[in-house]
Amino acid sequence: MTTTQSGATPRVAIIGAGVSGLCMAIRLREAGIETFTVFEKSSTVGGTWRDNTYPGLFCDVPSRYFQYSFAPNPDWTRLFSPGPEIGAYLERVADEYRLRERIRFGVELREAHWEDGRWILTGDGVREEADFVVTGCGFLHRPSVPDIPGLDTFAGASFHSSRWDHHVPLTGRVGIVGTGSTGVQIVAELAGTPARLVQFTRTPQWVFPTVNPRYTRLSAAVYRRFPKLMDVAYRGHQWWFEALLMNALLRDGIPRRLVGAGCRLALRSVRDPGLRARLTPRDEPGCKRLVASAGYYRAVQRPDVDVVTTAIDHVEPRGVVTIDGVLHELDVLVLATGFDTHALVRPMEFTGPAGATLSDAWAHGPRGYDTVAVPGLPNLFMLMGPSSPVNISSMFNVAEAQAGYALAMITRWAAAGRTALAPRADAAERFTAGLQDALQGSIWLSGCQSWYLTDDGTPVIWPASPAAHRELLDEPRLADYERV
Ligand code: NAP
Questions:
Q1: Same domain, 156 and 270
Q2: 285 and 263 in contact (C-beta within 8 Å)?
Q3: For residue 303, what are the contacts with CB-CB under 8 A and spacing of at least 6?
Q4: Distance from the CA of 336 to the center of ligand 1, in angstroms?
Q5: What is the layout of strands, in order, in the sheet containing 380-382?
Q6: 84 occurs within a structural domain
Q7: What is the pLDDT of residues 70-115, one digit of tens each?
Q8: DSSP designation for 221
Q9: In a shared domain, residues 356 and 278
Q10: Which of 202, 282, 300, 449 is the pocket-test mutation for ligand 1 (most atoms within 8 Å of CB)?
Q11: How far apart are CA 249 and CA 258, in angstroms?
Protein backbone atom coordinates (compact mmCIF):
# COMPACT_ATOMS: atom_id res chain seq x y z
CA MET A 1 0.00 0.00 0.00
CA THR A 2 1.48 3.31 -1.07
CA THR A 3 0.75 6.52 0.81
CA THR A 4 0.95 10.02 -0.55
CA GLN A 5 3.25 12.78 0.72
CA SER A 6 0.94 13.78 3.59
CA GLY A 7 0.57 10.20 4.74
CA ALA A 8 -3.09 9.95 3.72
CA THR A 9 -3.94 6.91 1.66
CA PRO A 10 -6.76 7.50 -0.80
CA ARG A 11 -8.89 4.42 -1.32
CA VAL A 12 -10.29 4.61 -4.83
CA ALA A 13 -13.12 2.51 -6.24
CA ILE A 14 -13.16 2.46 -10.03
CA ILE A 15 -16.32 1.19 -11.65
CA GLY A 16 -15.87 -0.45 -15.03
CA ALA A 17 -12.83 -1.97 -16.77
CA GLY A 18 -13.29 -0.42 -20.20
CA VAL A 19 -11.23 2.31 -21.88
CA SER A 20 -11.86 4.83 -19.05
CA GLY A 21 -11.61 2.56 -16.02
CA LEU A 22 -8.36 0.97 -17.18
CA CYS A 23 -6.94 4.43 -17.88
CA MET A 24 -7.76 5.60 -14.34
CA ALA A 25 -6.18 2.49 -12.84
CA ILE A 26 -3.00 3.04 -14.85
CA ARG A 27 -2.80 6.72 -13.89
CA LEU A 28 -3.17 5.85 -10.18
CA ARG A 29 -0.53 3.16 -10.44
CA GLU A 30 1.87 5.53 -12.18
CA ALA A 31 1.28 8.06 -9.36
CA GLY A 32 2.24 5.42 -6.80
CA ILE A 33 -1.31 4.97 -5.50
CA GLU A 34 -1.95 1.25 -5.17
CA THR A 35 -5.03 1.48 -2.97
CA PHE A 36 -7.57 1.14 -5.75
CA THR A 37 -9.97 -1.57 -6.82
CA VAL A 38 -11.70 -1.84 -10.17
CA PHE A 39 -15.20 -3.33 -10.05
CA GLU A 40 -16.26 -4.94 -13.32
CA LYS A 41 -19.60 -6.67 -13.64
CA SER A 42 -18.48 -8.76 -16.60
CA SER A 43 -15.81 -11.45 -16.66
CA THR A 44 -13.21 -9.57 -18.65
CA VAL A 45 -12.00 -6.10 -19.61
CA GLY A 46 -12.83 -4.02 -22.70
CA GLY A 47 -16.24 -2.42 -22.12
CA THR A 48 -17.99 -1.67 -25.39
CA TRP A 49 -15.13 -3.36 -27.29
CA ARG A 50 -15.85 -6.55 -25.37
CA ASP A 51 -19.62 -6.36 -25.83
CA ASN A 52 -19.73 -5.49 -29.53
CA THR A 53 -18.64 -8.36 -31.76
CA TYR A 54 -20.97 -7.83 -34.70
CA PRO A 55 -19.74 -8.64 -38.22
CA GLY A 56 -18.07 -5.66 -39.87
CA LEU A 57 -17.27 -3.80 -36.64
CA PHE A 58 -14.45 -1.36 -37.08
CA CYS A 59 -13.65 1.94 -35.44
CA ASP A 60 -14.01 5.01 -37.63
CA VAL A 61 -11.37 6.94 -35.67
CA PRO A 62 -7.85 6.18 -36.96
CA SER A 63 -6.11 3.42 -35.01
CA ARG A 64 -2.93 5.39 -34.37
CA TYR A 65 -5.07 7.95 -32.48
CA PHE A 66 -7.68 5.52 -31.07
CA GLN A 67 -5.34 4.14 -28.40
CA TYR A 68 -3.71 5.32 -25.18
CA SER A 69 -1.01 7.88 -25.99
CA PHE A 70 1.19 6.22 -23.35
CA ALA A 71 0.74 2.69 -24.76
CA PRO A 72 1.04 2.99 -28.52
CA ASN A 73 0.59 -0.21 -30.49
CA PRO A 74 2.96 -0.75 -33.43
CA ASP A 75 0.86 -3.66 -34.72
CA TRP A 76 -2.44 -2.10 -35.81
CA THR A 77 -3.21 -3.80 -39.07
CA ARG A 78 -5.27 -1.02 -40.65
CA LEU A 79 -5.83 2.72 -40.74
CA PHE A 80 -9.17 2.07 -38.97
CA SER A 81 -8.99 -0.86 -36.56
CA PRO A 82 -11.33 -3.83 -36.72
CA GLY A 83 -13.20 -4.13 -33.39
CA PRO A 84 -11.51 -7.38 -32.24
CA GLU A 85 -8.08 -5.71 -32.49
CA ILE A 86 -9.17 -2.97 -30.10
CA GLY A 87 -10.57 -5.56 -27.67
CA ALA A 88 -7.27 -7.50 -27.84
CA TYR A 89 -5.31 -4.26 -27.34
CA LEU A 90 -7.26 -3.50 -24.14
CA GLU A 91 -6.67 -7.04 -22.86
CA ARG A 92 -2.94 -6.62 -23.55
CA VAL A 93 -2.79 -3.25 -21.79
CA ALA A 94 -4.53 -4.77 -18.76
CA ASP A 95 -1.84 -7.47 -18.68
CA GLU A 96 1.10 -5.16 -19.29
CA TYR A 97 0.07 -2.88 -16.42
CA ARG A 98 -0.78 -5.89 -14.18
CA LEU A 99 -4.29 -4.55 -13.71
CA ARG A 100 -6.15 -7.85 -13.44
CA GLU A 101 -4.88 -8.37 -9.90
CA ARG A 102 -6.80 -5.20 -8.95
CA ILE A 103 -10.02 -5.98 -10.81
CA ARG A 104 -12.94 -7.70 -9.12
CA PHE A 105 -14.76 -9.33 -11.99
CA GLY A 106 -18.39 -10.33 -11.78
CA VAL A 107 -19.34 -7.59 -9.30
CA GLU A 108 -22.01 -5.07 -10.27
CA LEU A 109 -22.22 -2.19 -7.81
CA ARG A 110 -25.72 -0.77 -7.55
CA GLU A 111 -25.65 1.93 -4.91
CA ALA A 112 -23.24 4.31 -3.21
CA HIS A 113 -23.91 6.65 -0.34
CA TRP A 114 -21.69 9.07 1.53
CA GLU A 115 -21.34 8.29 5.21
CA ASP A 116 -18.85 9.68 7.74
CA GLY A 117 -16.61 11.19 5.11
CA ARG A 118 -16.37 8.28 2.70
CA TRP A 119 -18.39 6.40 0.11
CA ILE A 120 -20.06 3.10 1.00
CA LEU A 121 -20.63 1.06 -2.14
CA THR A 122 -22.93 -1.93 -2.30
CA GLY A 123 -24.09 -4.49 -4.84
CA ASP A 124 -23.86 -8.22 -5.57
CA GLY A 125 -23.32 -9.01 -1.89
CA VAL A 126 -20.38 -6.64 -1.71
CA ARG A 127 -19.94 -3.72 0.72
CA GLU A 128 -16.90 -1.58 0.10
CA GLU A 129 -15.60 1.72 1.46
CA ALA A 130 -13.79 4.27 -0.64
CA ASP A 131 -12.59 7.86 -0.30
CA PHE A 132 -13.12 8.37 -4.03
CA VAL A 133 -15.34 6.80 -6.64
CA VAL A 134 -14.35 7.07 -10.28
CA THR A 135 -16.88 5.72 -12.74
CA GLY A 136 -15.88 4.47 -16.17
CA CYS A 137 -19.17 2.94 -17.26
CA GLY A 138 -19.18 4.26 -20.83
CA PHE A 139 -22.14 5.66 -22.76
CA LEU A 140 -22.55 2.94 -25.39
CA HIS A 141 -23.37 0.34 -22.86
CA ARG A 142 -27.07 -0.22 -22.23
CA PRO A 143 -28.72 -1.54 -25.41
CA SER A 144 -31.70 0.48 -26.55
CA VAL A 145 -34.34 -2.08 -27.49
CA PRO A 146 -37.16 -0.52 -29.52
CA ASP A 147 -40.71 -0.70 -28.33
CA ILE A 148 -42.05 -2.44 -31.46
CA PRO A 149 -45.34 -4.28 -30.86
CA GLY A 150 -44.98 -8.04 -31.16
CA LEU A 151 -41.17 -8.03 -31.05
CA ASP A 152 -41.14 -10.84 -28.51
CA THR A 153 -43.39 -12.99 -30.70
CA PHE A 154 -40.82 -13.32 -33.49
CA ALA A 155 -40.22 -17.03 -34.13
CA GLY A 156 -36.67 -16.70 -35.47
CA ALA A 157 -33.52 -15.58 -33.69
CA SER A 158 -33.51 -11.96 -32.55
CA PHE A 159 -30.81 -10.04 -30.71
CA HIS A 160 -29.37 -6.56 -30.22
CA SER A 161 -26.24 -5.78 -32.26
CA SER A 162 -24.15 -5.52 -29.07
CA ARG A 163 -25.23 -9.00 -27.98
CA TRP A 164 -24.50 -10.80 -31.25
CA ASP A 165 -25.31 -14.50 -31.15
CA HIS A 166 -22.54 -16.08 -33.23
CA HIS A 167 -24.26 -19.47 -33.13
CA VAL A 168 -27.10 -18.23 -35.31
CA PRO A 169 -26.63 -19.07 -39.01
CA LEU A 170 -26.91 -16.04 -41.29
CA THR A 171 -27.55 -17.80 -44.56
CA GLY A 172 -31.33 -17.37 -44.63
CA ARG A 173 -33.34 -14.14 -44.50
CA VAL A 174 -31.80 -11.56 -42.18
CA GLY A 175 -33.39 -8.26 -41.13
CA ILE A 176 -31.43 -5.35 -39.64
CA VAL A 177 -33.31 -2.56 -37.88
CA GLY A 178 -31.27 0.64 -37.80
CA THR A 179 -29.07 2.77 -40.01
CA GLY A 180 -26.56 4.24 -37.56
CA SER A 181 -22.84 3.38 -37.70
CA THR A 182 -23.66 -0.13 -36.48
CA GLY A 183 -26.46 -0.94 -38.95
CA VAL A 184 -24.42 0.43 -41.86
CA GLN A 185 -21.30 -1.55 -40.89
CA ILE A 186 -23.32 -4.77 -40.53
CA VAL A 187 -25.05 -4.36 -43.90
CA ALA A 188 -21.77 -3.51 -45.67
CA GLU A 189 -20.16 -6.65 -44.23
CA LEU A 190 -23.02 -9.15 -44.42
CA ALA A 191 -24.35 -8.38 -47.89
CA GLY A 192 -23.94 -11.48 -50.03
CA THR A 193 -24.00 -13.94 -47.13
CA PRO A 194 -27.74 -14.21 -46.38
CA ALA A 195 -30.09 -15.30 -49.14
CA ARG A 196 -31.93 -12.02 -48.43
CA LEU A 197 -30.79 -9.06 -46.32
CA VAL A 198 -33.39 -6.43 -45.40
CA GLN A 199 -32.42 -3.16 -43.72
CA PHE A 200 -35.25 -1.25 -42.04
CA THR A 201 -34.35 2.43 -42.28
CA ARG A 202 -36.43 4.91 -40.33
CA THR A 203 -34.16 7.88 -41.04
CA PRO A 204 -31.59 7.73 -43.85
CA GLN A 205 -28.07 8.72 -42.81
CA TRP A 206 -25.26 10.50 -44.58
CA VAL A 207 -22.46 8.04 -45.19
CA PHE A 208 -18.94 9.45 -45.49
CA PRO A 209 -16.94 7.36 -47.98
CA THR A 210 -13.80 5.94 -46.50
CA VAL A 211 -10.97 3.60 -47.36
CA ASN A 212 -9.24 1.34 -44.88
CA PRO A 213 -5.76 0.47 -46.15
CA ARG A 214 -3.66 -2.20 -44.48
CA TYR A 215 -0.44 -1.34 -42.69
CA THR A 216 2.55 -3.36 -43.85
CA ARG A 217 4.73 -5.57 -41.66
CA LEU A 218 7.56 -3.20 -42.51
CA SER A 219 5.75 -0.26 -40.87
CA ALA A 220 5.24 -2.31 -37.67
CA ALA A 221 8.95 -3.20 -37.68
CA VAL A 222 9.93 0.46 -38.13
CA TYR A 223 7.66 1.54 -35.25
CA ARG A 224 9.17 -1.15 -33.03
CA ARG A 225 12.71 -0.10 -33.92
CA PHE A 226 11.98 3.63 -33.45
CA PRO A 227 9.18 3.86 -30.84
CA LYS A 228 9.32 7.66 -30.80
CA LEU A 229 7.81 7.53 -34.27
CA MET A 230 4.61 6.18 -32.69
CA ASP A 231 4.25 9.41 -30.71
CA VAL A 232 4.70 11.38 -33.91
CA ALA A 233 2.07 9.19 -35.62
CA TYR A 234 -0.35 9.67 -32.69
CA ARG A 235 -0.06 13.46 -32.88
CA GLY A 236 -0.23 13.46 -36.66
CA HIS A 237 -3.41 11.38 -36.79
CA GLN A 238 -4.93 13.41 -33.97
CA TRP A 239 -4.18 16.58 -35.89
CA TRP A 240 -5.65 15.61 -39.28
CA PHE A 241 -8.64 13.87 -37.82
CA GLU A 242 -9.62 16.68 -35.51
CA ALA A 243 -8.77 19.37 -38.06
CA LEU A 244 -10.92 17.79 -40.77
CA LEU A 245 -13.86 16.23 -38.98
CA MET A 246 -14.23 18.25 -35.81
CA ASN A 247 -13.83 21.50 -37.70
CA ALA A 248 -16.44 20.30 -40.15
CA LEU A 249 -18.90 19.70 -37.33
CA LEU A 250 -18.17 22.81 -35.32
CA ARG A 251 -18.24 25.57 -37.89
CA ASP A 252 -19.10 26.33 -41.47
CA GLY A 253 -16.06 26.38 -43.71
CA ILE A 254 -13.97 24.32 -46.09
CA PRO A 255 -13.80 21.14 -43.91
CA ARG A 256 -17.60 21.09 -43.55
CA ARG A 257 -18.07 21.58 -47.27
CA LEU A 258 -15.54 18.85 -48.03
CA VAL A 259 -17.27 16.37 -45.71
CA GLY A 260 -20.69 17.27 -47.15
CA ALA A 261 -19.39 16.96 -50.72
CA GLY A 262 -17.83 13.57 -49.89
CA CYS A 263 -21.15 12.27 -48.53
CA ARG A 264 -23.17 13.60 -51.51
CA LEU A 265 -20.68 12.19 -54.00
CA ALA A 266 -20.85 8.78 -52.32
CA LEU A 267 -24.66 8.84 -52.46
CA ARG A 268 -24.50 9.53 -56.20
CA SER A 269 -22.93 6.10 -56.64
CA VAL A 270 -26.43 4.70 -56.09
CA ARG A 271 -27.61 4.29 -59.68
CA ASP A 272 -31.32 3.63 -59.15
CA PRO A 273 -32.93 7.09 -58.67
CA GLY A 274 -35.75 5.60 -56.56
CA LEU A 275 -33.36 3.91 -54.15
CA ARG A 276 -31.14 7.02 -54.11
CA ALA A 277 -34.12 9.18 -53.17
CA ARG A 278 -35.05 6.82 -50.34
CA LEU A 279 -31.47 6.87 -49.07
CA THR A 280 -31.21 10.67 -49.20
CA PRO A 281 -31.21 12.22 -45.71
CA ARG A 282 -33.28 15.31 -45.03
CA ASP A 283 -30.78 16.78 -42.58
CA GLU A 284 -27.27 18.15 -42.97
CA PRO A 285 -24.25 15.80 -42.92
CA GLY A 286 -23.06 15.75 -39.29
CA CYS A 287 -26.40 16.63 -37.66
CA LYS A 288 -26.69 13.02 -36.58
CA ARG A 289 -23.51 11.15 -35.75
CA LEU A 290 -21.68 10.87 -39.09
CA VAL A 291 -21.48 7.33 -40.45
CA ALA A 292 -18.36 6.18 -42.31
CA SER A 293 -18.30 3.23 -44.69
CA ALA A 294 -16.40 1.99 -47.70
CA GLY A 295 -18.92 -0.51 -48.97
CA TYR A 296 -22.41 0.46 -47.81
CA TYR A 297 -23.79 1.89 -51.06
CA ARG A 298 -22.32 -1.00 -53.02
CA ALA A 299 -24.02 -3.41 -50.60
CA VAL A 300 -27.50 -1.88 -50.80
CA GLN A 301 -27.45 -2.06 -54.61
CA ARG A 302 -27.09 -5.83 -54.60
CA PRO A 303 -30.14 -7.72 -55.84
CA ASP A 304 -30.25 -9.74 -52.60
CA VAL A 305 -30.38 -6.62 -50.38
CA ASP A 306 -33.50 -4.52 -49.71
CA VAL A 307 -33.71 -1.15 -48.00
CA VAL A 308 -37.17 -0.73 -46.51
CA THR A 309 -37.97 2.87 -45.62
CA THR A 310 -41.65 2.30 -44.88
CA ALA A 311 -42.13 2.49 -41.10
CA ILE A 312 -42.37 -0.70 -39.08
CA ASP A 313 -45.86 -1.37 -37.75
CA HIS A 314 -45.29 -4.52 -35.77
CA VAL A 315 -43.45 -7.81 -35.63
CA GLU A 316 -45.19 -11.15 -35.93
CA PRO A 317 -43.78 -14.70 -35.69
CA ARG A 318 -42.89 -14.79 -39.42
CA GLY A 319 -41.22 -11.37 -39.64
CA VAL A 320 -41.67 -7.62 -39.71
CA VAL A 321 -44.87 -5.98 -40.94
CA THR A 322 -44.57 -2.42 -42.23
CA ILE A 323 -47.40 0.15 -42.07
CA ASP A 324 -48.33 -0.58 -45.70
CA GLY A 325 -49.33 -4.08 -44.53
CA VAL A 326 -46.40 -5.86 -46.21
CA LEU A 327 -44.93 -8.79 -44.28
CA HIS A 328 -41.14 -9.07 -44.62
CA GLU A 329 -40.48 -12.71 -43.78
CA LEU A 330 -37.29 -13.25 -41.82
CA ASP A 331 -35.27 -15.96 -40.08
CA VAL A 332 -33.09 -13.57 -38.07
CA LEU A 333 -33.86 -10.07 -36.79
CA VAL A 334 -30.98 -7.88 -35.60
CA LEU A 335 -31.70 -4.73 -33.63
CA ALA A 336 -28.96 -2.24 -34.50
CA THR A 337 -30.97 0.34 -32.60
CA GLY A 338 -28.24 1.97 -30.54
CA PHE A 339 -27.85 2.53 -26.84
CA ASP A 340 -29.41 4.40 -23.99
CA THR A 341 -26.70 7.04 -24.21
CA HIS A 342 -28.30 9.14 -21.47
CA ALA A 343 -28.07 6.33 -18.91
CA LEU A 344 -24.33 6.74 -18.30
CA VAL A 345 -23.74 5.25 -14.81
CA ARG A 346 -27.42 4.46 -14.23
CA PRO A 347 -29.20 2.53 -12.83
CA MET A 348 -26.58 2.97 -10.12
CA GLU A 349 -27.69 5.48 -7.50
CA PHE A 350 -25.44 7.88 -5.60
CA THR A 351 -26.56 9.71 -2.44
CA GLY A 352 -24.42 12.55 -1.10
CA PRO A 353 -23.92 13.79 2.48
CA ALA A 354 -26.93 16.13 2.50
CA GLY A 355 -29.20 13.60 0.79
CA ALA A 356 -28.61 14.85 -2.77
CA THR A 357 -29.09 12.00 -5.22
CA LEU A 358 -27.95 11.43 -8.76
CA SER A 359 -31.58 10.77 -9.72
CA ASP A 360 -32.54 14.29 -8.57
CA ALA A 361 -29.53 15.90 -10.23
CA TRP A 362 -30.33 14.14 -13.51
CA ALA A 363 -34.10 14.47 -13.44
CA HIS A 364 -33.90 16.26 -16.82
CA GLY A 365 -30.96 14.29 -18.16
CA PRO A 366 -27.26 13.99 -17.37
CA ARG A 367 -25.55 17.24 -16.39
CA GLY A 368 -22.68 18.18 -14.17
CA TYR A 369 -19.54 20.21 -13.89
CA ASP A 370 -16.45 20.06 -16.11
CA THR A 371 -17.92 16.86 -17.66
CA VAL A 372 -16.74 14.82 -14.67
CA ALA A 373 -18.40 15.92 -11.41
CA VAL A 374 -21.87 16.55 -9.97
CA PRO A 375 -22.85 19.05 -7.21
CA GLY A 376 -23.74 17.49 -3.87
CA LEU A 377 -21.75 14.31 -4.62
CA PRO A 378 -18.21 14.80 -3.28
CA ASN A 379 -15.13 12.90 -4.36
CA LEU A 380 -17.01 11.37 -7.27
CA PHE A 381 -15.58 11.64 -10.77
CA MET A 382 -17.28 10.30 -13.85
CA LEU A 383 -15.09 9.47 -16.80
CA MET A 384 -17.14 9.76 -19.99
CA GLY A 385 -19.57 11.56 -17.71
CA PRO A 386 -22.20 14.16 -18.60
CA SER A 387 -21.46 16.06 -21.84
CA SER A 388 -18.10 14.39 -22.34
CA PRO A 389 -18.21 12.18 -25.42
CA VAL A 390 -16.27 14.37 -27.82
CA ASN A 391 -18.46 13.56 -30.81
CA ILE A 392 -16.44 11.68 -33.35
CA SER A 393 -13.07 11.90 -31.57
CA SER A 394 -10.95 9.34 -29.71
CA MET A 395 -12.49 8.24 -26.42
CA PHE A 396 -9.01 7.16 -25.29
CA ASN A 397 -7.91 10.78 -25.49
CA VAL A 398 -10.97 11.92 -23.51
CA ALA A 399 -10.33 9.25 -20.86
CA GLU A 400 -6.73 10.37 -20.42
CA ALA A 401 -7.72 14.00 -19.87
CA GLN A 402 -10.49 13.10 -17.42
CA ALA A 403 -8.37 10.58 -15.51
CA GLY A 404 -5.68 13.27 -15.18
CA TYR A 405 -8.29 15.62 -13.69
CA ALA A 406 -9.53 12.99 -11.22
CA LEU A 407 -5.95 12.15 -10.23
CA ALA A 408 -5.22 15.84 -9.57
CA MET A 409 -8.23 15.99 -7.21
CA ILE A 410 -7.24 12.74 -5.49
CA THR A 411 -3.66 13.86 -4.82
CA ARG A 412 -4.91 17.29 -3.68
CA TRP A 413 -7.24 15.57 -1.16
CA ALA A 414 -4.40 13.54 0.27
CA ALA A 415 -2.16 16.58 0.61
CA ALA A 416 -4.89 18.85 2.03
CA GLY A 417 -6.07 16.98 5.09
CA ARG A 418 -8.63 14.70 3.40
CA THR A 419 -11.05 17.51 2.63
CA ALA A 420 -13.87 16.17 0.47
CA LEU A 421 -14.96 18.54 -2.30
CA ALA A 422 -17.93 18.71 -4.65
CA PRO A 423 -18.53 21.29 -7.37
CA ARG A 424 -20.62 24.29 -6.31
CA ALA A 425 -24.16 24.31 -7.72
CA ASP A 426 -23.72 27.80 -9.22
CA ALA A 427 -20.51 26.72 -10.97
CA ALA A 428 -22.31 23.70 -12.44
CA GLU A 429 -25.22 25.87 -13.61
CA ARG A 430 -22.78 28.27 -15.27
CA PHE A 431 -21.03 25.35 -16.88
CA THR A 432 -24.28 23.88 -18.24
CA ALA A 433 -25.42 27.29 -19.52
CA GLY A 434 -22.07 27.60 -21.31
CA LEU A 435 -22.64 24.25 -23.00
CA GLN A 436 -26.12 25.25 -24.12
CA ASP A 437 -24.73 28.52 -25.53
CA ALA A 438 -21.96 26.68 -27.35
CA LEU A 439 -24.63 24.64 -29.14
CA GLN A 440 -26.37 27.61 -30.69
CA GLY A 441 -25.83 27.73 -34.44
CA SER A 442 -24.15 24.30 -34.37
CA ILE A 443 -24.88 21.62 -36.91
CA TRP A 444 -26.45 19.51 -34.17
CA LEU A 445 -29.40 21.88 -33.99
CA SER A 446 -29.86 21.94 -37.75
CA GLY A 447 -33.02 19.83 -37.77
CA CYS A 448 -32.61 16.16 -36.91
CA GLN A 449 -33.48 13.81 -34.07
CA SER A 450 -30.38 12.54 -32.28
CA TRP A 451 -29.27 11.35 -28.88
CA TYR A 452 -26.99 14.35 -28.58
CA LEU A 453 -29.44 16.50 -26.58
CA THR A 454 -31.46 16.05 -23.42
CA ASP A 455 -35.09 17.22 -23.32
CA ASP A 456 -34.12 20.67 -22.07
CA GLY A 457 -31.43 21.18 -24.70
CA THR A 458 -28.35 20.26 -22.64
CA PRO A 459 -25.84 18.51 -24.88
CA VAL A 460 -24.96 14.95 -23.95
CA ILE A 461 -21.82 15.36 -26.04
CA TRP A 462 -19.11 17.99 -25.75
CA PRO A 463 -20.27 20.82 -28.04
CA ALA A 464 -16.88 22.45 -28.69
CA SER A 465 -13.46 21.40 -29.92
CA PRO A 466 -11.50 18.46 -28.46
CA ALA A 467 -8.69 20.93 -27.66
CA ALA A 468 -11.12 23.03 -25.58
CA HIS A 469 -12.14 19.89 -23.68
CA ARG A 470 -8.52 19.01 -22.95
CA GLU A 471 -7.87 22.58 -21.82
CA LEU A 472 -10.94 22.51 -19.56
CA LEU A 473 -9.59 19.45 -17.79
CA ASP A 474 -5.99 20.56 -17.66
CA GLU A 475 -6.26 21.84 -14.10
CA PRO A 476 -9.26 21.72 -11.75
CA ARG A 477 -10.45 25.20 -10.72
CA LEU A 478 -10.72 24.70 -6.98
CA ALA A 479 -12.63 27.97 -6.53
CA ASP A 480 -15.57 26.19 -8.20
CA TYR A 481 -15.53 23.45 -5.56
CA GLU A 482 -16.80 23.54 -1.98
CA ARG A 483 -16.26 21.43 1.13
CA VAL A 484 -19.08 19.14 2.06
P1 NAP B 1 -27.53 4.82 -33.38
O2 NAP B 1 -26.54 5.68 -34.04
O3 NAP B 1 -28.24 5.36 -32.19
O4 NAP B 1 -28.58 4.36 -34.50
C5 NAP B 1 -29.72 3.62 -34.13
C6 NAP B 1 -30.50 3.33 -35.39
O7 NAP B 1 -31.63 2.56 -35.02
C8 NAP B 1 -31.02 4.59 -36.08
O9 NAP B 1 -30.99 4.38 -37.46
C10 NAP B 1 -32.45 4.67 -35.55
O11 NAP B 1 -33.33 5.38 -36.40
C12 NAP B 1 -32.81 3.20 -35.56
N13 NAP B 1 -33.95 2.90 -34.71
C14 NAP B 1 -34.03 3.01 -33.37
N15 NAP B 1 -35.25 2.63 -32.96
C16 NAP B 1 -35.95 2.28 -34.06
C17 NAP B 1 -37.27 1.83 -34.30
N18 NAP B 1 -38.13 1.65 -33.29
N19 NAP B 1 -37.66 1.58 -35.56
C20 NAP B 1 -36.80 1.77 -36.58
N21 NAP B 1 -35.54 2.20 -36.43
C22 NAP B 1 -35.13 2.46 -35.18
O23 NAP B 1 -26.89 3.42 -32.91
P24 NAP B 1 -25.56 2.70 -33.40
O25 NAP B 1 -25.52 2.64 -34.87
O26 NAP B 1 -25.45 1.44 -32.64
O27 NAP B 1 -24.46 3.68 -32.94
C28 NAP B 1 -24.46 4.14 -31.59
C29 NAP B 1 -23.21 4.97 -31.40
O30 NAP B 1 -22.13 4.04 -31.43
C31 NAP B 1 -22.95 5.93 -32.51
O32 NAP B 1 -23.46 7.18 -32.26
C33 NAP B 1 -21.47 5.93 -32.58
O34 NAP B 1 -20.98 6.93 -31.70
C35 NAP B 1 -21.04 4.62 -32.02
N36 NAP B 1 -20.49 3.70 -32.99
C37 NAP B 1 -19.27 4.00 -33.43
C38 NAP B 1 -18.68 3.18 -34.31
C39 NAP B 1 -17.33 3.56 -34.77
O40 NAP B 1 -16.93 3.13 -35.81
N41 NAP B 1 -16.58 4.38 -34.02
C42 NAP B 1 -19.31 2.06 -34.78
C43 NAP B 1 -20.58 1.76 -34.32
C44 NAP B 1 -21.15 2.60 -33.41
P45 NAP B 1 -33.53 6.97 -36.23
O46 NAP B 1 -32.30 7.59 -36.78
O47 NAP B 1 -34.74 7.26 -36.97
O48 NAP B 1 -33.66 7.20 -34.75
A1: yes
A2: yes
A3: none
A4: 6
A5: 103-105, 36-40, 12-15, 132-135, 380-382
A6: no
A7: 999 999 999 999 999 999 999 999 999 999 999 999 999 999 999 9
A8: H
A9: no
A10: 202
A11: 11
- 427 vs 451, higher pLDDT: 427
Using CB distances shorter than 6 Å, the residues near ligand 1 are 59-61, 140, 146, 148, 177-183, 200, 202-203, 289, 312, 336-339, 449, 451
Domain that holds residue 330: 151-212+249-335
CA of 63 to the centre of ligand 1 (A): 22
Q: Which of 292, 310, 335 is the last residue of a domain?
A: 335
Q: Give the pLDDT confidence score for residue 181 in this predicted structure.
A: 97
Contact indicator for 417, 5 with CB cutoff of 8 Å = no
Relative to the CA of 148, which ligand 1 atom is closest?
18
Long-range residue pairs from 433-436, CB within 8 A, at least 24 positions apart, any chain: 435/387, 435/459, 435/463
- Tell me: do 157 and 294 sit in the same domain: yes
Model confidence at 67, in pLDDT bands (50, 70, 90)? Answer: very high
Given phi > 0 = left and psi -120 to 50 = alpha, else beta, which region is 251? beta
Q: Which of 312, 335, 358 is the last residue of a domain?
A: 335
Calpha distance 318→336 (Å, rounded): 19
Which ligand 1 atom sits closest to the C-alpha of 52?
43
Q: Which atom of ligand 1 is nearest to the CA of 335?
A: 7
Considering the domain boundaries, does residue 414 fall inside one?
A: yes
86 lies in a domain?
no
- Which ligand 1 atom lies nearest to the CA of residue 180? 25
Query: Ligand 1 test: best mutation among 182, 293, 328, 444, most atoms within 8 Å of CB?
Result: 182
Taking the centre of ligand 1 as the mean of its atom positions, its distance from the CA of residue 188, in whole angstroms, is 15
